[in-house]
Structure formats: C-alpha cells, structure tokens
Amino acid sequence: MSAPSSSPTPAPTSYKNTPNRSVSVRGVTFAYRQLGPDDGVPLILLNHLAAVLDNWDPRVVDGLAARRPVITFDNRGVGASSGSTPDTVEAMARDAVLFIRALGYDQVDLLGLSMGGFIAQVIAAEEPDLVRKLILAGTGPAGGPGIDKVTAVTIKDILKAVLTRKDPKQYLFFTGTSGGRRAAQAFVNRLKERTDDRDKAISVSSFRAQLKAIRRWGLQEPADLSRIHQPVLVANGESDRMVPSVNSVDLAARLPQGELEPLYPDAGHGGIFQRHDLFVPRALEFLEP
C-alpha cells in the first residue's frame, strides 16, 4: 500500500480505481482508501469478519461517495495494515479511533457492518464527541442471541464453499432462494471489478483473532445501549444467519435514537449489498445534516 501523495490530486469517483493510501500512528501503519467530495463530515466504513478493503460492495461505496466523503480502511493486522490483530472488539475500536484521529478528524459518521457494527457501538459509547451519526448493518448488541455461534456457522459454510467451489459469502451473506443465489453471484462479480492494486487477503492468525473477538462479544452481558445517544439507523435482511435479524430489531428498540429500516425481504447478512438500491438512498437521507 502506498502512502498518500504530497501533491493534490482529483478525488476519485469510483471505488475500483481509488488509490491505496496509508497513515502511521503509534507504530501501526493503517491501509485505507478515500473517495467522494472533499467537504462534509466523513463517513468511516468499519468492515465485517475476514474482510479487507476489496470486500466492500462498490455499488454501496460509490453510491455513498456520490454525496459524502467515504473512507474504508483495514484495522490493525488486517490486509495491508501492519501489527497484530486484536482479539477483542474493544481493542479494535481503540485502533479505529487512532486511525480516525491520525487522519485529523474530530467528528465522523460511522457505517459498521457485522463485526464492524460491534466496533461502531463501542466507539460511539466511548468517544461520543467523535461520532455524529451511526449506521449499523447486519449486526447486534453485545450478548445478542446467536452471536456466539458465528464461528460454527462460518466454518460450516466455508467448508461447503470449498466443496462447491464458491465464495463462502454466497452462503454466509445471502439466502438459498433463487433470488438470493442470483444476488450472491452478482455481488461476487462486483467484488472483482477492481483488477489493479488489490488488497492482501486476511491472514489465518488475524481471522482466528477476529473469531475470538466475536465470540467474546456474543458471550458478554447485554450491553447498556442507553450510552449511545447519537442518531442510529439500523439495517439488515430479514433472514440473517450470521447475526440473527432479531438483533437488528432489538438494537433499534433499545437505542435512544434508534431507527429500524424495514428488514429487506429474501435477504440475509449481506442485505445492504443485495438491496443497495434501497440502502444507499436511505443512508444518504439519514446522514443529511
């Protein structure tokens, strides 16, 4: 991953050709990409289990970046970022805050997907002045039902994917209906649109650390969501197998300013990717000042 150029360059408008950048803080080099307008509160995207920069759906990133500054990044030890991956959500959240502040921001919006949603909740609670608004997708609160089973579901579907020569996300993120299978294939194809300067895949050790962190999150006592005072939009598919959709309903009900986007029908954990046509305009509306 190359460092940001010292000379000004036009902001990229498409995620598939957004240059890789890096910033170093406290001995850790964070890899990231930034696109969209130069003004406005930046939207920081917090990624899901095993994901690197290239796992964000370009339709979601490009759609959001049409009106908002958008930044994706690899947390510590993931993809092209240096260091060792933490095995707690709280440590991942501290690293994300370090990254955000290293870029010079004192206020941001957050979009957290799955594990990224866990991280977003911790940041919002621990750094209330840093976070203006949150979008939580395919995620749940600490101690939420089924979250401690993510490892078992993930390993089972990875093995199934190996046997069928498919991307595990086709099983983990989408339903098994004909519509779900079509959406899964379209999503996987979109992830291949970037052909140059792609990110490094997550290492086995980092993957294991993330699984440990997720299990710990699922086994915690129920979180006190009253600490999160920011406006929060909650989105998911109605058939999420990884973080059961009941967690999204619970989040929206327990957050002081939580708002539930109607659960997307015939959609699972990757609901915001499958229904990017609905999610992106709703997210942009929510993020308006």
Automatic annotation (TrEMBL):
InterPro entries: AB_hydrolase, AB_hydrolase_1, AB_hydrolase_fold
Domain annotation AB hydrolase-1: ranges: 42-273
Pfam family, one: Abhydrolase_1
Biased composition (Low complexity): 1-14
Presence of the UniProt keyword Hydrolase in the record: yes
Protein's recorded name: Alpha/beta fold hydrolase
GO MF annotations, alphabetized: hydrolase activity
Keywords: Hydrolase
Region (Disordered): 1-20
Organism from which the protein derives: Streptomyces boluensis
